[in-house]
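Ops channel
N.P.: pipeline sanity check, posting one input/output pair.
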């Protein structure tokens, strides 16, 4: 019984360290971004040394209301066929970015970034506004 008790603190330390490491794998995006139609808008995705920062590619997904998510960027900066060239992706260190140049009304959607085996948990809601003159 004494030997089991001696292992308990070590096990707790190990578990807390592992839990902290797993928590660092989360990708963080702003909850929402808004821009005027026709403008350039950028959505950021901040990761860590366990995903984006360790060289894993980044994918971006667009989910229109009532639809399934659609890949708009893969391998950091590649567009699947059919995705307009106003969408572009980039990556620097532990941060990736999705840029839309010339925002259009149909770009209003939820946007998700993904890297490594991370789930599509966090997302950004993009709102497009018409400029009032």
């Amino acid at each position: 019984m004494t030997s089991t008790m001696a292992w308990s603190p070590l096990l707790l330390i190990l578990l807390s360290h592992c839990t902290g490491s797993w928590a660092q794998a989360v990708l963080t995006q702003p909850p929402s971004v808004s821009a005027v139609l026709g403008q350039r808008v950028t959505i950021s995705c901040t990761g860590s040394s366990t995903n984006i920062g360790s060289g894993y590619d980044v994918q971006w997904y667009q989910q229109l209301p009532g639809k399934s998510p659609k890949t708009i960027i893969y391998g950091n900066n590649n567009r699947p066929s059919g995705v307009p060239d106003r969408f572009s992706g980039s990556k620097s260190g532990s941060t990736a970015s999705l840029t839309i140049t010339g925002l259009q009304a149909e770009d209003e959607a939820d946007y998700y970034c993904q890297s490594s085996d991370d789930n599509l948990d966090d997302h950004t809601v993009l709102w497009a506004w018409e400029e009032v003159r």
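N.P.: looks fine end to end. The chain is about 15% helix and 35% strand.
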